[in-house]
Amino acid sequence: MKRCAWVNNSNELYVKYHDEQWGVPVHSDRMLFEMLVLEGAQAGLSWETVLKKRENYKKAFDNFNVQKVAKYGEAKQQELLQNEGIIRNRLKVASAVRNAKVFLQIQKEFGSFSKYIWAFVGGKAVKNKFKSLGEIPVETDLSITISKDLKRRGMNFIGPTIMYAYMQAIGMVNDHETGCFRHDNI
């Protein structure tokens, strides 16, 4: 089975993520929040590192219940910084809490975060036709626009590169290479 070039085929977790989740449109606000936290945590690290810690993140962050995460105070954040199962970066942990608060504001304004984020692509995934990994951009005009809007609203750790990776992860863009079995099967 042919997969995208970025997939580490010897890592079962990576293969499963690629085959079952990456590029599949996500509309669940809980899942959209989860991916936002994980993409922010990944900054400067490999996605493989984050995937290995994903289950620990789910436990540590109350299964990504945005209402609970938004209420994390200093004591809870300090507890998270002692948790060896997640990436123990003070700025990234604080960002998850800050972004949860903004996420809730966006839900209130738009009815759901899904309505807000998917409006940027008219509710329909952009299907690209890249033949190789080298053709896939790390950011686009759209990821820059979304990043600026989220920053204006108060989020951080959502720069244009992180935002484009987020868009790929939640299926706003289908960047499976044209030779990958998933390109036409989402």
Q: Could you tell me the CATH topology label.
A: Endonuclease III, domain 1
Beta-sheet strand percentage?
under 5%
Strand order of the largest sheet: 1-2
Which sequence of SSEs, written as H and E, runs from N to C? HHHHHHHEHHE
Radius of gyration: 16 Å
What's the CATH architecture name?
A: Orthogonal Bundle
Structural class: mainly alpha
Shape: globular
Number of domains: 1
Tally of strands: 2
Q: Name the CATH homologous superfamily.
A: Hypothetical protein, domain 2
| CATH class identity | Mainly Alpha
Helicity range: 40-55%
| Main β-sheet description | 2 strands, parallel
Counting H and I runs of at least 4 residues, what is the number of helices? Answer: 9
Q: Which oligomerization state do the chains in this entry correspond to?
A: single chain
Which whole number gives the mean pLDDT?
97
Distance between the termini: 16 Å
Describe this structure in words.
The protein has 186 residues and is an all-alpha fold. It has one domain: Orthogonal Bundle (Endonuclease III, domain 1), CATH 1.10.340. It contains nine helices and two strands; from the N terminus they run αααααααβααβ. A two-stranded parallel sheet has the order 1-2. The longest helix has 21 residues, at 90-110. It is globular, with a radius of gyration of 16 Å. The model has no long low-confidence stretch (mean pLDDT 97).
List keywords for this structure.
single chain, 186 residues, mainly alpha, Endonuclease III, domain 1, two-stranded parallel ribbon, 9 helices, 2 strands, 54% helix
